[in-house]
Specification:
By secondary structure, the protein is α/β, with parallel strands linked by helices. It folds into three domains: 31-261, Aldolase class I (TIM Barrel, Alpha-Beta Barrel); 266-360, 3-Layer(aba) Sandwich (Rossmann fold); 368-490, NAD(P)-binding Rossmann-like Domain (Rossmann fold), CATH 3.40.50.720. The chain is elongated and about 90 Å long. Bound molecules: NADP nicotinamide-adenine-dinucleotide phosphate (NAP).
Length: 529
Amino acid sequence: MRQLDVMHHAPASTLEFPGAPASAPRLRLGKLCIALQAETPAELFARAQSALHDARFLEFRLDALAKPAAALPELKRFLAEHRDVIAIATCRRKAHGGNFVGSLTSELDILTKAAEAGCQIVDLEVESAEEATHPQLARFRVALRAAGSALLVSFHDFSRTRALDQAAARIQAFEPDYVKVVSTARSLADNLAVLRLIEDRSLGADVVGIAMGEEGLVSRVLGPRAGAAFTFASTSDAATAPGQVSARTLLDLYRVEQLDQATRIFGVAGNPIAHSLSPLMHNAAFRRENVNAVLLPLKVRILDDLLALARELPLGGVAVTMPLKQEVLPHLANMDPLTARIGACNTLRTGADGKLYGFNTDVAGVTRPLEKRMRLKGARILVLGAGGAARAAVFGLVDREAEVFVSNRTHENAMALARKAHARSVKQEQLAKLQFDAIVNTTPCGMTGVKPTLPIKENELNARLVFDMVYNPIETPLLKLAHARGLAIIAGFEMFVQQGARQFEIWTGKPAPEAEMQRVVQLALRRHG
Ligand code: NAP
C-alpha cells in the first residue's frame, strides 16, 4: 500500500471558485468550522454567540429547528452584526440523515433564503442535488450566485467508510464550490481512506473529508494538513455528529491551526482510549518544547489496524496501552534487552527505515521516582501484585540490583513472576513480620470503585516509603495511611509522568519538560478525578 503523501499540499486559506462567475465570492476561511445545532432559535444564536470566542466560521444546522424558516430573520440580524463571520447554512432532510421533514422544494427555498440572509456557503446533500430537476437546480444556483453564496454539496454515510471516490465523483458531477464527503469510521484504516481522498481530490477542488465516530478523530485533526479546505468541530456543550470534537479541544489540545506538512504524528493506542491522559501530557510537552508534533488517541480494536496506520500515515511513534503491550512484540524490528525480558512494550518508535522499534518506559516510570529518593542497589522492595504493571516494576528493580519481593492475592502468580525475574515471592501471611525500604502497590486496590481500598493490612505497612501506582484518585487510601504514619510517599501520577517523559525523549531526542507534563496531568486529575 502506498504511504500517504502529506508533503506537498499547502492548505489553501484563500479560496477561489473555479468556473464561477466573476462575482463569485472569495472567502478567507479558517481551518475550523464550528457546527451549531439547537432545538430553538434562541438557543442556536446563543450558541453561535459563544462559539465566536473560538472561531468566526460557523455552520448553522437549520434542520435541527422545528421551523427552520422562522429562524432566518434572526440569522440575517446575527450575520449583519458579525460581518467577519463566515456562515454555512444546512437544512439536511431526514431521508439523508438530517432532521428536516419538508420537501426538496422547501429545502432549496430555505437554503436560498439563508444565502440571501448572508450565509456565504450553503450545504446541499448530493441526494437532493440528484433529485432536483435541471431547471430547479439551475434556478437555485443562480439565486445563490445572486446572493454571493457558494455551493457545497455533501455526501454522508452514517454506517461505514466505503467507496469514497464514487461519492466524491457524484458530488463533483455538479461542479460545486466545495466537495464534502463524510463517512463513519469503524477502524483506524478508515481515516486513511478519507485522508487519501482529500489528498487526491484537493488539488482540483476544495474538499472537506471527515470520518465520524471515535475512530475517526485522526481525519478530523489531520484533514486540513492533508489539504482539506477545513474541518468541523462542535461547541463544547453540544456535538452535532458522532465523534465530533469541541473547537477548544481541536485548537488547544491538537493545535489544528498550526499543523502543517512538517508536523510529526504520534499516537496513544488502546481500547478504551478516550480517557487517556497521554494526549494532554504529550501535546503540552510538544507545545512547551516547540516540537512540531501532535499526539492523537487511537482506538485500536485489532493490532493490524494500528500497524496499517503506523505504516501509511506514517506515525513517528506510539504509546501502547493494554492489551497491545504484548501483542505488538512480534512486529518489532528490534527492542532493548530489558523490554525483551519483560515481554511487554509500551513505546514504539518508527525508525528512518520505516520499521518499528520497541521500548518499555514503564520501567523508568517505576525506577526513576524511587531513584530520586533512595539508592536502589541492595534496597529491599516489596511489590504488591503480579500483573502487567508489576512485571515492569519487578524486572526493572531487579535490573537495578534491588532485592525484590513479590506478594499477590493469587500466590501462584507472584511465584511465577518472581521466578522469571529472579526475585522472591512472599505469602501475604508473612508480610506483617517483614521490613522493607519501599512498598510498591501495583494492584488496582484504592482506585475509584475498586475494593478493597487497601492492598495490604495496616500492620503490614512496614517500610519507610510507599509508592502507589494507582493515580485516580491522586491521594489513595494507601498513600493517606502512609502519610499519616510519617512515611515518604510517591503518587501514581509521578509514574505516569516519568514513563511519558521517557517516551518524549525517545521520540524527540530532547529532554522532556517534566514539570509541565506533571502540571497538566495533576490539573486534569484534580479536575476530573
Ligand atoms: P493487571 O495486569 O490486571 O494486574 C492486576 C494485579 O492486581 C494482579 O496481580 C491481581 O491479582 C491484582 N489484583 C487485582 N484486583 C485485586 C484486588 N481487588 N485485590 C487484590 N489484588 C488485586 O493490571 P495492571 O495493568 O498491572 O495494572 C494494575 C494497576 O496499576 C491499575 O490500577 C493501573 O491503573 C495501575 N497502573 C498505573 C500506571 C501509572 O502510570 N501510574 C501504569 C500502569 C498501571 P491476581 O493475580 O490475583 O489477579
